Amino acid sequence: MTDATGRPDIGERQPSFREMRASGVSKSYGATVALEHADIALRAGEVHALLGENGAGKSTLVRIFTGAVIPDRGEMQLHGETYAPRSILEARQREVATAFQELSLVPNLTVAQNFLLPSLARPGRPLISARQVIARGADILERHALRRIDPAARVGDLPLAERQRIEIARAIENAGRVLILDEPTASLAETDWLFEQIGKARARGVAILYISHRLAEVREICTSATVLRNGRSIGTVGLGSASDGDIFEMMVGHRVEHARRPGRVAGTASAPRLAAEDLAGHGLHGVSFQLGEGEILGVAALEGQGQRGLFRVLAGLETPTGGGIRVDGKAAAYRTPRAALRCGSGISYLPEERKTEGILAGLSAATNVVLPFLPRVGRAGLIGRRDEERAALPAAQNVALSPRYLGFAIGDLSGGNQQKALMARTLATGARTLLLFDPTRGVDVGTKESIYAAIRAFAEGGGSVLFYSSELPEIVQLADRCLVLYGGQVFGELEGADIAEQKLVAAMIGHGTRPPAGHSSVSSAGPVHAVAESAR
């Protein structure tokens, strides 16, 4: 039954819903055990976290809940009744909906059409006009505080963060009993909107499963958590009593130490390997900076402050409308990523969205790694699978990607192993400058440590790294210096021990003295000093 707007009419049934429960759920693919005896309970009106490393079985469990995968063993119950969906549509009919990390939106359809799928194409349903579709889409956007989004806009033309919000809003619309959020903030720099929507769903009595690698936000929104390791439920803990160390130990089987990168020795700055001079266009308004040899330069910014445009311009994906770029001290005017790689000592880019911009899902992980130098892999013009895996192995070892995964189709790997393969490919190009856009987005603590180690080793070997992260602790841990973008400008610059979350947040919201017009860089004695002082 639906209401006047086309939403499921959940008002009568919702108050009686109590919980969703899974017991002993298991799933294997041949000899590979993806999930082995998983147990979890989700209660109405509560937000429960599911934690674990990539490959621990979280995605498999989500697919089982959603009906995309049929378990081999175990049982599930929804409100005391057997729950065994065999498709996403069947799960939706039982009022269980998921917002996937790898977005399930149809990019060539409008926002409104995506909201109303699959009912638009369902046989026996009366046809509705394009105007009605747009009107219904506008109503949904209004309900979820997304009025700024045009319901007639083509989804593929929207920024990743807006697509993520649409994915989440669509899931909430269909979640009368259970809402599953898989890495919902992976592309969101701010959580206010999401947490507000979660609060509304909780008030309706919806049980919410929240999957994230960001423990700070898990603690903010969730009351309890179930931890998976190697496909098994290790335990369920109350987040008020378990420390981060306790949770990491449950996830990986040992304590995880987060060491900050030692600061560069004063006076060791080298000639710039990459320099931007008053870059404009694509959200930028006169951005200038220099990146030296052996340096890790972080970029911090709230959503939409020009960081995406900056990286795409530097990678050769966009053409600036003003200013210029210098590579190894010489003016550079490359217009493609291939040309950027061939420019000077080389620039290699790790893209924002691995699914659509990074991986070739049907090819093996080894093929994905060696793509930049594929012609050099074979012998006598012939390239075999073992040749690819042999050539990919050194790069894979740099990021702790297990050799056994090199022969797998990369689309079948966990998100963390996909990201390791992309990082390996970025390193394997031989470029001496890396542009890394949110390099650990949506990956677990173990994968993060592997990527951090690879970045540090690259810099210690004389490489230069410019990276943006939506996670401030990552910037604090890795960066020698950090640029803060605000309004498409370099609003602040922090260095060494001054890179602290409180100071970064102050600069990110524009608190302090704005750099004067035409100022190429903000020194710690000038505007940045004012920002840092105001945050203390």
UniProtKB/TrEMBL annotation:
Span of domain ABC transporter: 20-255, 269-512
CDD domains noted in UniProt: ABC_Carb_Monos_I, ABC_Carb_Monos_II
GO molecular function, one term: ATP hydrolysis activity
SUPFAM superfamilies in alphabetical order: P-loop containing nucleoside triphosphate hydrolases (SSF52540)
Region (Disordered) residue spans: 1-22, 513-536
Entry keyword set: ATP-binding, Nucleotide-binding, Repeat, Sugar transport, Transport
Ranges of biased composition (kind: Basic and acidic residues): 9-21
Similarity annotation: Belongs to the ABC transporter superfamily.
Name this polypeptide is given: Ribose transport system ATP-binding protein
Source species of the chain: Ancylobacter tetraedralis
